[in-house]
Write a structure and sequence with these properties.
It contains six helices and 15 strands. By secondary structure, the protein is an alpha+beta fold.
Length: 242
């Protein structure tokens, strides 16, 4: 995709530690704040290499998989629609031979035993006509004295409010939910503080999400063109010697 001046639009990706209470839609309900309001509060983004990139307009940016208002944690945003599709489409987001997975830590109502955890691993019928959840990784983190259970849940799909629906299906419910990982990206890497955010490097997007940013694709095409020209020049030179 090219900008109005004909240049290739670079792919930018922001990793945000979303606070609970912000919505991922463009307009907050009843005057509530959005993640875009939060980002617009600071127009200057400094990349890990300290190369400053000024982003003043988020109108063409999109969330890569939404988090509901009450959920906190790792949220990715980008100006590249193809990347959104790559990560969120269940049939498209292959990362090598692996699906791009998302990991959540959930504090749930009640003491959930191994039998219930196995149900979640095998897949449960989700409300709202969303069908059965795909197999998931579910690990017990802790039981506490207030009769709640803390679970770590990793899923390879992103149906609407999926983790909440999964726990509702086994007779529990979510008291607190945080997303901690997407692909190979971890919340604690650069965004441990709630509300903090960072601009990802091109190699991080390629390595952890299995996606080549536009600028890397252009560089690859240029290298291929140069190699083709050099090969053609070498052939012409050999013909001239005959």
């Amino acid at each position: 995709k090219r900008s109005e001046d004909g240049n290739i639009k670079q792919t930018y990706v922001i990793q945000l530690h979303k606070p609970a209470g912000l919505v991922t839609s463009r307009v907050g309900q009843h005057g509530g704040s959005t993640v875009y309001d939060h980002l617009n509060a600071s127009a200057l983004v400094v990349s890990p290499k300290e190369a400053s990139v000024v982003i003043e307009d988020f109108s063409e940016w999109h969330c890569i998989g939404r988090l509901d208002k009450a959920t906190s944690g790792l949220l990715l945003l980008t100006n590249d629609g193809r990347l959104v599709h790559h990560v969120t489409n269940p049939e498209a987001h292959k990362f090598g031979s692996q699906i791009i997975r998302k990991t959540y830590v959930a504090r749930c109502m009640g003491i959930l035993l191994e039998e219930t955890l196995q149900q979640l691993r095998d897949g449960v019928e989700l409300s709202g006509g969303l069908g059965k959840s795909r197999p998931a990784e579910v690990a017990l983190v802790a039981h506490d004295s207030s009769r709640t259970t803390v679970l770590r849940i990793t899923v390879g799909e992103g149906k609407n409010r999926q983790v909440r629906r999964m726990l509702h299906a086994v007779g529990s419910g979510v008291l607190e939910l945080k997303r901690t990982e997407v692909g190979g990206l971890h919340l604690e890497d650069g965004t441990a503080e709630t509300g903090s955010w960072r601009l990802l490097e091109d190699h991080q997007v390629a390595e952890h999400l299995g996606y080549k940013p536009r600028q890397l694709e252009v560089q690859r095409e240029i290298r291929q063109q140069v190699r083709a020209k050099l090969k053609h020049a070498a052939k012409s030179k050999r013909r001239g010697r005959r």
